[in-house]
Design brief:
By secondary structure, the protein is mostly helical. The protein is 52% helix and 8% strand. It has a three-stranded antiparallel sheet with strand order 1-2-3, with helices on one face.
Length: 219
Amino acid sequence: MPNLANIRTDEKLSAEQWRSVFANIQRLVDLGLPSGHEQRPDVVKDASKETLEKAKSEYAAAHRLTAKQAAEVDPICVLGEYYFRQFEIAYDEWSKCRGLAYPALIEKANAFDIWSKKLKTGATIDPLAQTLPVMTGVVGKFARADRQLAALTAVEALRAYAAANGGKLPEQLDDVVETPVPANPMTGKPFTYAMANGVATISDSSLGDHLEYTIKIRK
């Protein structure tokens, strides 16, 4: 939405431009709905008096206007900037999580989703908040992919150990020194490892789903 980028340069959007922004948001939200469309509350008509007053106050402060001057501005412009600032705050909160290891990132993502859900379903109608993603889903997909890669790397480390030890698999992961065995990135700890009857198992059940690889060396 190019118009939203212009706000960061202190450009004021017209009432018509804000209507276009909110129409685009409606289309974005509709893309993720099974029914294809859901009637959203009216940005101006359905805004509470408290929200509108707070938006006017922040608008006046941001543009160095008097309360009377702010009251004369089209409400959709006042509310548009107010909701955009709320969206920026939410986005900044998520940006703080970038670069965190998965154990901390998963925890932060859960907290973020609880907080953003309140923005989406609370008494304050914030159209922009509807575009915030469910971060636990996003983080979970990347975490599971990295976990699978780490587990497969651990499998190769076990094969390297067996190749160096006459086809024998290790009794525990700590015995593997020839090739590094990566930790489970989702927990920051070693994978669960078991050895029985010549068959080794690497597994993990983080995030409620189970991953498991079994390794048996062919004689």
